[in-house]
Specification:
It is a single chain. This protein is an alpha/beta fold. Helix content is about 30%, strand content about 15%. The chain contains three helices and five strands. Strands 3-2-1-4-5 form a five-stranded mixed beta sheet, covered by helices on one side. Strand 1 and strand 2 form a beta hairpin. Helix 2 packs parallel to helix 3. The longest helix has 21 residues.
Length: about 140
């Protein structure tokens, strides 16, 4: 375990090529003791007597309204054509239901912004909170060959 010997013989000045394991073992034993002491503290939990109650789970999926607007500004409520003036009344009637429906807004890329802004303003005034745009993802770029 020493780096050299005291006998003064041949090769006495050459360092020893063995690894000293004592410091490594000391560190590992200290870590083991620390983990043994702290492990019970990590699993400590407060015991609470919680009251029991029975209820049935609510499986109410929100209704989805598919609102499409074509390039000419025509509005389709779940694939049925309606007039743009009917939207505020329809939004008001569906916003009162529980759970509130999701409005999926699909618009042609050539639709005028004025029509989209009017539809979104009507939905917001009626109290609809769950409005989303539906789009088609761009195709992934092809790797160069």
């Amino acid at each position: 375990m020493a780096f050299g010997s005291f006998n003064g013989g041949a090769g006495s000045g050459a360092p020893q090529s063995e690894i000293n394991m004592v410091p490594l073992i000391d560190v590992m034993l200290v870590l083991l003791v620390i983990f043994i002491i702290t492990a019970p503290l990590l699993s400590h939990a407060v015991r609470i007597d919680v009251p029991q109650a029975t209820s049935s789970p609510v499986d109410a999926d929100p209704v989805k309204i598919d609102l499409a607007i074509d390039a000419d500004g025509k509005v389709f409520w779940n694939d049925a054509a309606i007039a743009l003036e009917e939207l505020p009344d329809r939004f008001a009637s569906v916003s009162k239901t529980e759970p509130q429906p999701e409005l999926h807004l699909r618009a042609d890329k050539n639709t005028r912004y004025e029509v989209l802004a009017q539809v979104m303003a009507d939905a917001s005034r009626a109290g609809l909170k769950r409005i989303g745009f539906v789009s088609t993802p761009e195709p992934a770029p092809q790797p160069a060959q």
